[in-house]
Automatic annotation (TrEMBL):
This is Lactate utilization protein B/C. It comes from the Bacteria. Residues 44-208 form the LUD domain. The lineage of its organism: Bacteria, Bacillati, Actinomycetota, Actinomycetes, Kitasatosporales. Pfam families: LUD_dom (PF02589). InterPro entries: FTHF_cligase-like_sf, LUD_dom, NagB/RpiA_transferase-like. It comes from Streptomyces qaidamensis.
Length: 211
């Protein structure tokens, strides 16, 4: 028996007498800080995204393809990773080579792709966090962790919530959730910030409102 089996065995024994009818966990904690309108919640999201060094853009449905094309052109992207369920119209205005999200793609192949464009599952205003859940329009988790440039589209206000508890209510815990607060970054012991360590160096978030 190895260490893993011993630990799991202890967990099973500890849970053996647990009753399924135990009292529910109290969830009477504060669900959001202050009261905001939908528009104010979106503004808070944009403010906190920018505070985390994400680049925030705004447009409507009609302007989205041109905006994405412009961002890829400005970046100098020659290729873009595309989740299988992404709206084809989003990339209609760009001639950049599209790379499909494939299970067999190697990390080296993904690293050679310049950009990735995805949708999102939910965005949390109070923390400036974008959450992906692996849905067809977001793709596999790794496609947003390896390429250096991530363009993420958020529909406002319907995909924006005030707080993490509200966001969790919309998410399936069984799905592969990726929580993104700005571009990937870390700091060494001298607090020198280095970006692009565990994910993209540049995160651009597009807030798409109505027509």
């Amino acid at each position: 028996m190895n260490s893993r089996e011993r630990i799991l065995g202890r967990v099973r024994r500890a849970l053996a007498d647990a009753s399924a009818d135990e009292a529910p966990i109290a969830r009477d904690y504060l669900r959001e800080h202050g009261q905001r309108t939908a528009a104010q919640t979106v503004e808070l999201l944009a403010e906190n995204l920018a505070d985390y060094r994400a680049v925030v853009h705004r447009t409507d449905e009609a302007g989205l393809p041109a905006l994405i094309a412009g961002l890829l052109e400005k970046r100098g992207a020659a290729s873009v990773l595309v989740p299988s369920g992404l709206d084809e119209g989003w990339l209609a205005a760009t001639g950049v080579t599209r790379v499909a999200d494939r299970a067999e793609s190697t990390p080296d192949e993904l690293d050679r792709v310049d950009s990735v464009v995805t949708a999102c599952a939910v965005a949390v205003a109070e923390t400036g966090t974008i959450v992906l859940d692996g849905s067809p329009d977001q793709g596999r988790r790794r496609i947003t962790l390896v390429p250096d440039h991530h363009v993420c589209v958020v529909r406002v206000p319907e995909q924006v919530v005030s707080s993490v508890p509200q966001g969790l209510e919309r998410l399936d815990p069984a799905r592969p959730l990726t929580w993104i607060s700005g571009p990937s970054a870390t700091s060494d012991i001298e607090l020198d910030r280095v970006e692009g360590v565990h994910g993209p160096r540049t995160l651009e978030v597009i807030l798409v409102g109505g027509a």
